[in-house]
């Protein structure tokens, strides 16, 4: 049997059960060896459903298991820093669900802790590992659509009736900017290979949902007068789209983060569909993570990228709550 990276899962969140665990199991390099929950019965139920051999009734017990190489952390946002640092101190590599932390200061502490422990830390933006984004960057860099004039991204869904959802706990890092707004922000930063200069965000703050941002619309100002306009929401119809506007053409990604990977390119020569392979993004993410752990390649997205991303989210949240434009250093 080929060598495998042995994963432990801290928690039974729906994203872990629905997507990340099956992705690791489908990957070429990983196996899910254990899962922990603060309710042992919940860990046992999930393990039985997904074929995971070991279960623990606490996160501490899993971290004490010397057979585990890496952990995936899908816990609520306010727990990311604590358990990433504790995992690093236990010698485990860490894949942490996005957003990596509540703010840039927490993210920086996580990066430093993992560096000190000599373990790899990655933020779980699975979509970045699908080869279509390499192809999109190739088209942009080829000059086919000319100079980039703007990017628009949207990620919305409607879960507002579920008032007990962790997304609606402000002190736990709830809200649409944390949950889905981070996607178009990360995509723009990745495609432009630049960091923003300022942000302005307008949000629907809902008293019914602990005053978190249930919908937000914003502009993120990048160098060279390029703007990302985005909207995100948890109380709106579903969509997850991205559009890159150039002087000579447009790239449209109808399912930018989840769903059909194909996208469209429009130029003076017409509109074409770029066919992309149907690949499990979560499996690709797991294999990319393992390749870094094993020293086969450098991280495509360094952990410092997560800190930079959190600085933008910090500014967006500040803008939304203070109703003003925020400049970034």
UniProtKB/TrEMBL annotation:
Gene3D superfamilies: Dihydrodipicolinate Reductase, domain 2, NAD(P)-binding Rossmann-like Domain. Pfam families: GFO_IDH_MocA, GFO_IDH_MocA_C3. Residues 5-122 form the Gfo/Idh/MocA-like oxidoreductase N-terminal domain. Keywords: Oxidoreductase. Residues 134-252 form the GFO/IDH/MocA-like oxidoreductase domain. GO terms for molecular function: nucleotide binding; oxidoreductase activity. Belongs to the Gfo/Idh/MocA family. This is Deoxyfructose oxidoreductase. It comes from Paenibacillus abyssi.
């Amino acid at each position: 049997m080929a060598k495998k990276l042995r994963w432990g899962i801290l928690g039974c969140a729906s994203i872990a059960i629905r997507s990340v665990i099956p992705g690791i199991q489908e990957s070429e390099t990983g196996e899910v060896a254990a899962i922990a929950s603060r309710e042992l019965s919940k860990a046992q139920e999930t393990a039985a459903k997904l074929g995971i051999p070991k279960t623990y009734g606490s996160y501490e017990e899993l971290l004490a298991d010397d057979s585990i190489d890496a952990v995936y952390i899908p816990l609520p946002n306010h727990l990311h820093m604590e358990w990433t640092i504790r995992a690093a101190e236990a010698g485990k590599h860490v894949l942490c669900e996005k957003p990596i932390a509540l703010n840039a200061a927490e993210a920086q502490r996580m990066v430093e802790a993992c560096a000190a422990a000599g373990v790899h830390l990655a933020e779980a933006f699975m979509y970045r590992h699908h080869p279509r984004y390499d192809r999109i960057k190739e088209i942009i860099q080829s000059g086919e659509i000319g100079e980039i004039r703007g990017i628009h991204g949207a990620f919305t869904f409607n879960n507002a009736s579920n008032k007990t959802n962790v997304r609606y706990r402000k002190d736990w890092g709830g809200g649409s900017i944390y949950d889905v707004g981070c996607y178009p922000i990360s995509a723009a930063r990745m495609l432009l290979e630049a960091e923003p200069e300022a942000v302005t965000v307008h949000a629907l703050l809902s008293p019914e949902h602990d005053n978190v941002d249930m919908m937000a619309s914003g502009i993120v100002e990048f160098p060279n007068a390029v703007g990302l306009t985005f909207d995100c929401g948890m109380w709106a119809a579903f969509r997850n789209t991205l559009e890159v506007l150039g002087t000579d053409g447009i790239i449209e990604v109808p399912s930018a983060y989840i769903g059909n990977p194909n996208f469209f390119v429009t130029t003076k020569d017409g509109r074409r569909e770029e066919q992309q392979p149907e690949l499990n993004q979560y499996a690709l993410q797991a294999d990319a993570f393992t390749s870094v752990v094993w020293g086969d390649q450098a991280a495509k997205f360094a952990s410092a990228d997560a800190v930079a991303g959190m600085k933008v989210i910090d500014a967006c949240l500040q803008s939304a709550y203070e109703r003003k434009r925020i400049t970034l250093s």
